[in-house]
Amino acid sequence: MAIPLCMFLILGLLGMKMSHKLAGILGTAGMGVTLVLAYFTAFTYFFSGSPDFVSSEGQRLQYIVFNVDWLQFYDNLVIRLGFLLDPISALLLVVITTISFMVHLYSNGYMRDHHGVYEHGFQRFYAFLSLFSFSMLGLVVATNIFQMYIFWELVGASSYLLIGFYYVKPSAVSASKKAFIVTRFADLGFLIGILILSFYTGTFNFTDFTSAPVADGVYGVSLDTAQGIKNLIAGSEAPIFMGASVLTWALVLIFMGGMGKSAMLPLHIWLPDAMEGPTPVSALIHAATMVVAGVYLVARLFPLYLMEHSAMVIITVVGAVTAFYAAMVACTQIDIKRVLAFSTISQIAFMMVSLGVADPNFHEGLGYMASMFHLFTHAMFKALLFLGAGALIHAIGSNDYTEMHGLRKYMPITHVTFLIGCLAIAGIIPFSGFFSKDEILSACFGNSWIAYLWMSMVAALTAFYMFRLYFLIFWWKEHPVRQGHHTPHDQPWTMTLPLVILAAIATVAGLIPFGNFVSWNGEPYDLFGHFDWSIAAVSLLVAVVAILVAAKMYMKENPLPAKMKNAMPTLWDWCHHRFYWDELYMFITHKIIFNGICRPIAWFDRHIIDGTMDGFAYVTNKASYAIRGLQSGSIQMYVWIYLIGALALGAITAVCIL
Amino acid sequence: MDYSQFLVMKQEIGLLAVFLIVFLYDTFMPKRSLGALGTVSSVLFALFVAYGFCPSVFDSPVETAFSGMYATSAVIANIKTILNIGALIVMIQAMRWADQDLVRIRRGEFYELLLTTLFGMYLMISARHFLLFIIGLETASLPLAAMVAFDKHRYESREAAVKYVLTAVFSSAIFLMGLSFVYGLTGSLYFGKIATALMMGDGINALLVVALAFVISGIGFKLSLVPFHLWTADVYQGAPTPVTSYLSVISKGAAAFAFLVVLWQVFGCVYTFAWEWMLYALIILTITIGNLFAIRQRNMKRFLAFSSISQAGYIMLGVIAFNGMGMAALMYYILVYIFSNLAAFGVIGAIENNSGKVNMEDYNGLYKTNPRLAFTMMLAMFSLAGIPPFAGFFSKFFIFTSAINQGSVAIYVLVLIALINTIVSLYYYLLVVKAMFISDEESTVATFRSACSERFALWICVGGILLLGVVSCIYNHLLEISF
Amino acid sequence: MESVGSIIMYWIIALSIVVFSVLTVTTRKILRSATYLLFTLFATAALYFKLDYEFLGAVQIAVYAGGIVVLFVFSILLTSHPGHNSERLVSRRRVLGLVASVATLVIAGYALVSRCGMLCTKLPQMSNPDMKTIGTTLMGSGDGQYLLPFEAVSVLLLACIIGGVVVARKR
Amino acid sequence: MFSNILIYFVVIPLIMLGGLALCRNIKQIRAVAVVGALALTALSVWLLLDYMQLRAAGNTAPMLYTDSWSWFGPLNINLAVGVDGISVAMLILSSIILLTGSFASWKINPLPKEFFLWLVLLSTGVFGFFISIDLFTMFMFYEVALIPMYLLIGVWGSGNKNYSAMKLTLMLMGGSAFLMLGLIGIYYHSAPEGQPLTWNLLEIVNNASIDKGWQYFLFPMTFVGFGVLGAMFPFHTWSPDGHASAPTAVSMLHAGVLMKLGGYGCFRVAIYLMPEAAQDLAWIFLILTGISVVYGAFSACVQTDLKYINAYSSVSHCGLVLFAILMLNTTAMTGAIMQMLSHGLMTALFFALIGMIYGRTHTRDIRLMGGLMKIMPFLAVCYVIAGMASLGLPGLSGFVAEMTIFVGSFEHADMFHRVFTIVACCSIVITAVYILRVVGKLLFGPVQDEHHLSLTDAEWWERTSTVTLIISVAAIGCFPNFFADLIKFTFSPSIFAVIGMN
Amino acid sequence: METTMIYYLIPTLIMFCCGVYGFLTRKNMIAMLISLELMLNAVDINFVVFNRYLFPGQMEGMFFTLFAIAIAAAETALAIAIIINVFRAAKNIDVTDLKKMKF
After folding, report:
1. pTM score, two decimals?
2. Could you state, in order of their start, the residue ranges of all structural domains in chain B?
């Protein structure tokens, strides 16, 4: 983990002096080493069977590799920087390093133009990438919630820097700003949540949080290290604030942080705009890693959430609404990256829903496992899709698929890998998405049939819009070769290799017996034993139907889409404009916050507060002017005042005293 | 008859001796040797100042003469020495002015009058009998009228003299009226006897209050306390600059100390009944109105007049403190004030003598043409405003400390008002600094080299401003000898 | 019980003091004003005589009436042009003057009246101070003797002479 | 007297003053300034190490290196010195900022000699203030530090400098008027009846003889007195104007160090000496400071002048300092001191950068600039770092300080404190808004003014200045526990035992 | 009828007030000085009366008056000198002309 940091420092400080190539190689090599280390770590964790990692009953334990005091608030309230290994962090380590390495590799090609000339700020780009990888790794291995917050912020900042990589472009600048501020706002909730939680528990440590509810014994599992935290959190004397227990407040606020990072409604608006960044960045940050941090956060604190049913409901509802909303919007976008962005939102919402509906009493917490599984598969295929999109964009020079069409012949590798990605996300057997999504649907089914129907519908929409995208890019009509525009072709190996690798993973990842590795309480979980074929079949059917519909509409150039559009103009309009969320936010920030609060305050400050201070000076001056008549220049007036003064002095004193 | 009693009055006699020598020198020496008159008198006076540091004077024991009509002690000797130092600086500063063609013929009289008024102040300070006090007061103020009228060719000087003499006489009439009431109440004019009689008597009554008001107004006139101050600005503006500086520091300092003696020794027993509240009112009025007027002034001398009015208000805080600390703080304040104000007047005088300019606009950009003068002026302004590490800060701090030592809640309020007023005063002092340092306009005062005497006097003042505060032994000494 | 003569004497003195004082400040001719002042001063001297301070009365006549009034008359003659010696008073100024003087009268009068016990003192017996006593008092240094003020006032007079000369001489 | 290390913090500037007075040309002036500042920095670092060593050796006196020399004996005024962790931290901060400020004003014009004279006089006051434990000398140095501002802004400033300089001076002096009354009042209640009075902080604390009624009177006096310098709402208005008009180094010193005098004084005098009143009256000032935190941030959002933005941001951040101090518990107070350090450094960095940018573009209006990242990458990167520090990015100092404050503030379980803590927390979002707004407009985006394209990047002295500051900011951000421990000792056992809290 | 002290003090006070009135209203400076003399004279009488009635055994009041007369003479002389000085320059001794310096 230190390696990316070093890389960041080296590249950041010395980058200017370095050649572009060296910077690229250094960055990639550094990431490669990290990748190997991460794999080694994960492998060791899962397979070594050491008693540190696995209890005698086969339960996977949380293992703290090291933990140094970083900042001490109180005797027991300490921010430590440490390294926590448990199933999900090991999983995330693998995911992050894999994707990150792919992206590093890919960027070597992407960040050049067609003549192999490096883009301006190439070293900077690698520096930021390394910084991001460092922060993300720090986030996932965090031993305590505050460490997580620290890296959470760092992730946000590096995301800001990367989105704003093309800083000359105003749209990129504003997108980066938006991303940062929106997530910052969410982090405020996170922070307050942390404050509440830590105040009542007296600790930041995850291990303390997670072991507490378990110790309660409600769920039939008990750990020896029962702690008094439980009482503090939810005991009979648990403080109530505005009708909800403090724990609910804390968890909801923390979830708010997750909402921001994972772009849940209504804090999702930054993600589509964030596509202004270079495409590899979108792949790394805004598809695979950072945006799932919110899911990861909830998963981390899952035992706590379990204790608060209302918080779980909130998560489910938010996730479900977001999933549907994003899917709807994705159907109408014309920018391929935006489509992918909304699809990301939708998929993450899937994970959230999955966590929300997870119930240890149903299939032993299937939802949790499903969520993590989906996280893993989604990271792979979404990165694949993004990188593929990047290849397209690099080839065409535009984000807009109306300028693409019919590329299948020109870019075969891209075509195939993209197709695999689409199949995976649509949930077609045997691609990875099928398995993970199916788990989620199962979990929903276990919760309530409404959730199940709802999510199935979203799944159908997913398949539809992905294939809409796919057909529009690669089919629809022949590629119009315009004057002065060279023919698009596949990209150099640095770019295609990651595509191929990721495609391979996306194809087979679904077959991994995931439940063995990750489950909510660490005990191995037999995934296939719980596999519900009826649900799988239904979802498969739904997906296939959706794909067929998409094929019907977009395979060949035809007027059907336009008809559809005209049939439901309002809906289309709303979807196309993302339900006017951006406008709403613009209204709130500009009209209300800026014009409604900031300006009046600034005015108030200048005119009222400062005016008061100036007013003192003014009054003094005026008074000075007003009394100048005393000094009239006439001796007799002087003497008169003198005499009256003396008499008044005597008279008033006499009256007062006597 | 025991004429040996005169020997107690060492300083008065010394001063008269200097006066006589100067007088005789002026009258009988041939005309061509009169050019050295300023130097001669300054040197003589300097010797006399030095005499003030002889142990017999410096640590003078408490002594009275003429059956208690006259008293001296270490405190009194020291305050006289303080005044002497100020007078010496004024004399040195005045040399250049006195050598001007239009004044030269009268310069002997200038020094003589200066010395006699100083003698009058001595009497005021040492007097323990109201007759002697009155004579001292008149000796200290009447010849000053003649000094104010010294620049006969200037209209302002004449107007100032008339204003001064008429108000002075009027105020002494009021003062005497008050005294007659006091006499009627107590049957004596000795300070000690009056105090005893007041203590024995049936306490406070209307007649005493009115008498007290008249007495305070009489001395307040010299101190230019509001509302008895109205002559001050016009007279300061009109008078020749050395006379103004003399009026503003020495005369004021002596009056302040005499005021303290009168109030404490004569009316001490009616402190809380009568004059404490009168002084509250006077101090607030003085500081506030002085400051308010000072804000608008463009003429430097007039400006300093109002500034000195508000300074008088601060000095009065030492009186109201009514304890040994107050006395020490008052003396120390006077000492510091002498140096600061004389530095300011020295600069004004130097510039006036060279270019005839006394308006604040003329000081614009002075730092570019005359950096040293500007720097000195700045020090003076900072010291007057009470900015550390200059002496003015210490004097202000100590006088506030001594006042608060009195302990009542009212005194906190009073000090707070005074402190808020220091901000106003800081404003106008900074205006001068701003004109000299910040203003972008071209200076209208050309670069010049001031006369030796002026520079010498300014160096003394600067030294005083820088050292008086930091060197703690001076204040410690004053506090030690105060009662 | 005083003699009738003395009472009549008192009333004459008191009335002339009041009348002439008022006339002094109200007459429009400045020379007349000086003359009324002279009468007032004479009346004052008479009052001193009546109170058995003959020496003081003599000094009053000699110094005040003889010296100061003459000084006034000279300076009036020096500074006023014939026919220009009357002045018209502005009414506002008159009001201010009246207010001030009445205020003084009221406040000082009230202050005095508040001590009515003191005010109703009858004239006690006193032997006229003879010249020898006055001389020793003036020149003595003991309690209640005035050598020091005497010397001091000489300095004052000297200073005033110097000042007067400086101011008044032509150059 | 000269055996005490602390006295050299005043002696060295005085020697510098003398040296500067003798200087004849700009090179000598720079040499004197830099050598002096370096000496001070070295001294403060040495002091830090020595201090840590003494503490590690188990020295638990509340103040170390204490010494006292009689000055105005009859008034019990001494020249008493002593430091604890806070003072040491502040001394380091001051010396670093003086050093970088000297570099930043490398090319000051006109009258370089006078400029450095005043600057050094100002820092004399600052150092003197931090080493003093005698109320009188403390107050004296405090005022010494204030008055050079007037000339520094007036002569070398820009814009509406006359007005700003006057306003700044008068308002600060207004504060010190209240302060003086408060201090004298404390003096007269510093010892029980019959014992000699004292100005010495430690003795006053030991005597603990200021009764509650007087505390209610004196606490607001001193707190407001210092609070004015700490830019407490509604007495903050000198800050935007003053900073906007001040020259670079002065803004740096003023925002970086001088405003810290306020916070330090609030703690050291108002709260330390009058804990009971502090506890009872804190709510009033909590409201005020809570307002200033949010209010400053909101105001900063719509400013267009770079310096105004920073000035309002300082209002917000310094408000947080006072806010935390008033929370009256170890963690929050530690956070407050760290925030002082952090704000001092990053604000100095900001002002240095703004000065450098202004020196090139001759405008501070963000609407007229843009794309500076392309033109002067070094400065722009530094600016981004400063901005990140300001909005509380982990790894830089701002985060550590703010988090400590928030965690500490949250210790109060009642509604009132909670609400205000959350309000204060909101400021981090608003801070992000205005910082990113500036960064976006100023550094990113297309170049607004063609003339700017010909501008150059930083010179070596400017680089020295900024890099030093950045390293310091990062040092605090990365190793906060070191500083927290340094500071915390002051708060931990002794004080709270004495003042009966926690 | 007994001429008690008040019989002397009242005319004296009236005299004093007349002096005040004159001083405040007259334009001629010499007239103002004359009014001042009235005031001083009134004070003198006060002293004498107090001395005579209340403290017949001593002579402080009387001597005070004696010296006050001397002082009054000196004051008058000096004031007249200054007035004459003004007259020389302005050919006029109207006090209302002397208000150039103000505010």
Report:
1. 0.90
2. 3-482
